[in-house]
Amino acid sequence: MPELPEVEVTKLGIAPYLEGKTLTEVIVHDGRLRWPVPEHLQKTLRNQICHSIQRRGKYLLFQFDTGVMLIHLGMTGVLRIQKKQEESKKYNRIEFHFGETALRMHDPRKFGSVLWHSEEQGPVENFPLFKKLGVEPFESEFAGANGAQLLYERSRGRTISVKQYLLAGEVVVGVGNIYCSETLFEAKINPKTPAGKISKVRYARIATAVQLILKKAIKAGGSSLKDFVHSDGEPGHFMVLTKVYDRSGLPCKECHTPIKQITQGQRSTYYCPACQK
DNA sequence: AGCTCAACCTGGCTGC
DNA sequence: TGCAGCCAGGTTGAGC
Question: Hey, where are the domains in chain A?
């Protein structure tokens, strides 16, 4: 579920319930996530105030008094705000109580993570897993001509496909597998093209498409914000209408050529062989 | 340095 | 109906 738009929408959905609130308890149902949930988390966080919730790439950053808690949702993670007394469902791995409010992390596949970066470890930008992350698609470093320039510069000499280059998030973060296919369709670029062979003009199209596709998805997610705060039922997947993703063999929405599905770097890619050159 | 691939884990779907 | 096999929104780390 979570690519950047879903994480952003989650942030927007949960922040009003948690910011400024005091954490009263942490309950770990199963701490064996991508990395083990730190043993000390309950002791550390109890009675600390959650001052703000930010996003960096696909990580959510919860600023507490003495450090930052980082949550990544992996492939199947979902965060929900519920009443504490509501029954905790299967696959809820960890929950955080703020008085009567509970923030619950549901994650069947356990690829998500809950980590802690204390103040003594310096600013959260130093967090080891952030070292290789690219710039934020909506920050100034990627704005205007900057995005194209970055994508172009950093790709010179690279032989990997542009699909894998974008997906890696080493230049710009947040383009996951679905939106990567969608972005390249929007930019009319063939996903198999080596990253190092794409001109600056074409990277300008890609940079614009990255922002457009992500922005659209955030907007679509925003309309289902309630999914994150209602207790009953599963939060639905985003009803984002894809033009190519998961449409193998179906007619291209623009030219009716059958959409192709290929595998790149162990992941599926979808594209229109006629529209994308 | 950069590329490829296995691995982490669980459920759902397809096809025999 | 049962079961094997494959697929799934992410990311790291080993090996070449």
Answer: 4-129, 140-271
